[in-house]
Amino acid sequence: MARALQVNNGIRRVDLTDVRLASSETARGINRDIVLQLIRAHQPVSRADLARLSGLQRSTVSQIIEQLIKEHWVREGALAHLPRGRHPTMLALNDDLVVLAADIHPRQVTVAMIDLNGRLLAKSTLPLGSDPAKSVASMVECMRRLRGNHANKSLEGIGISLPGRVDLETQRLIFAPNLDWPSYDVKRVIERAMGLPVAMENAATSCLMSELWFGRMDGIRDAVLITVSEGIGTGLLVNGQLVSGQSGMAGEFGHISIDPAGPRCGCELNGCWETFASCSAALRYYSEFAPKAKTITFHELLRLAEADSPAAIQALEKQATYIGRGLRMVTAALAPELILIDGDVTSAWSRFAPIIEKELRELTLGGKPPRLQTTHEGEVARLRGAAALLLHRHPKYSDA
Length: 400
Known about the structure:
By secondary structure, the chain is an alpha/beta fold. The chain has helices spanning 24-42, 47-54, 58-70, 132-149, 186-194, 203-213, 273-277, 279-289, 298-306, 310-334, 349-363, 381-391; strands at residues 2-6, 12-19, 74-79, 89-93, 97-104, 108-115, 120-127, 154-162, 165-166, 173-175, 198-202, 223-228, 232-238, 241-243, 338-343, 371-374. It has three domains: 2-93, Orthogonal Bundle (Arc Repressor Mutant, subunit A), CATH 1.10.10.10; 97-209 and 384-391, Nucleotidyltransferase, domain 5, CATH 3.30.420; 221-375, Nucleotidyltransferase, domain 5. Helix content is 38%, strand content 23%. The termini are close together.
């Protein structure tokens, strides 16, 4: 089919540089995703209700359902008791179908098993070193252990959330300055070791996919998800489509310099947004405000702020100010309707939100500032995001 762009007067412009004929297989894939999402949102639900909600013919819905049942994505449940007529069989996602999810940070990785409804069945956190081969071997051992502990579940595959960018064609990690791993084919090694398909994605994009899959962004067409951890990551939803850009590098706002005289960044530039707004930056501020204090973690910094430590409060307020100021780049470039924040800062959102919102209001160029919200899942967001990579295994198409 031809890629089409919607313009204000309702006319679609066909991009003749990217013309693909719409096949019956393409249409089936689109319809399958629609039905699967409707089951997720309305379960338990009948075939008749799915036809009504989707606008598809009942025969089409029935064919899709039979395929989803055959693939173990959907299961039939009890009969619905209606006042009159036939008693339809209700449908729901099959919670015996699970995925393994790995959330990689620069110093640790969390591996978990998650079902189609986003329920966390088990998780384990491991230290992570600078040698990718040893680190991946530890991850594989943990995955095998989780699989063995849940042998009654049907394992669909493995999703990996990374603090960097994955090339869409090679599926290799090509940019992860905070992880600092040499070139290593993570996907191939884990696939061979586990005998399962592996999907990898930047943490912010995978978190955004999780928000989409689990239905908390219905009706939102333009949104940005910002992960605030050791660095700053960004996932983009533009006109209803996830945007990756060339080599999967779209949205690296964290590595745009906002002060050339600022601290050296892991990407080898000076004064990038993440050197001012990340959790690592907050710890640096704390060491400046309390030079005699011992080295602490970000969670310890949050606890000190709750205990009314002036230096900790100052450090977090400075971080929040720079998060808000950096969002000017995001709003000026993309004008999103919604900005979602994920990461450890969300556990102290009552402290961060007023400062970030003030900066966002004052720095918006025109019109209304975007709505600012946290992700719904706290520390589990990136794990569910990694799981969502497998749930989104079927490509999304434009509505051309």
